[in-house]
Amino acid sequence: MRTWRKRAGQQVTPSPNIWNWPELYEKENRAQDVTGAVWRALRERCDWSGKDVVDVGCGDGFHLPLFASTAGTVIGVEPHPPLAERARRRMAGTPGVDVRVAPAQQLPLPDSSVDLVHARTAYFFGPGCEPGLAEAERVLRPGGVIAIVDLDTARAPYGEWMRADAPQIDPAGIEAFFQRHGFESTSVDTLWRFDDRETLEAVLGIEFSAKVAARAARETPGRTIPVAYRLRTRTKPAGLVL
């Protein structure tokens, strides 16, 4: 559950999982969405072929190659300089790709300059995210889309483990927030599949407290975890004045 936020008057909150264990988080990324369901749903909502894309909270750039394979240009934005440097190394030599260091509320992009703002389990968790949403709206062209891919905190088993570690998570409140802000949301069911049991348990150990990670391991037979996501999209109308 990679989370970094910058709310009004606050600094970026560290994301211990990828900041402290980037190599293990790489294995987690490889295990996620092995069915491709999230990518299919995202492309159905906002096909980025030939378009200008910004990936907010891009981390070490894991998702940048897939965008770059068909997009016109891709910009990864990441607040943690060591991760941004890893992303630059990953994408070195790929035309049309740039990686920049910045928080979500201060995107280093001109007004109306991109067609898709993508953020995946990186920033948006309901109330408090208004500055990031406003900044995404600023850089989008009319007709552009902001797409937020979040873990579904209401759905078992992963959502239950998240709430066990963070009881303040309010799935109904999060849904109401995005409805108020004009997002269309849908559930996407997929699987995480790991190469071996050791890696699965190690990933649970960087995502949850020791107690919840142990519970999650007990409740997970084999090497596969069913995980539900929420895909939230909003299209910028033509002529919108901020």
From TrEMBL:
GO molecular function terms noted in the UniProt entry: S-adenosylmethionine-dependent methyltransferase activity
Keyword Disulfide bond found: no
A Pfam family annotated for this UniProt entry: Methyltransf_11
Transmembrane parts of this sequence: none
Keyword Cell cycle carried by entry: no
Domain Methyltransferase type: residue ranges: 54-148
UniProt cross-references to InterPro entries, sorted A to Z: Methyltransf_11, Methyltransf_Superfamily, SAM-dependent_MTases_sf
Keywords assigned by UniProt, alphabetized: Methyltransferase, Transferase
Gene Ontology biological-process entries: methylation
Protein name (database record): Class I SAM-dependent methyltransferase
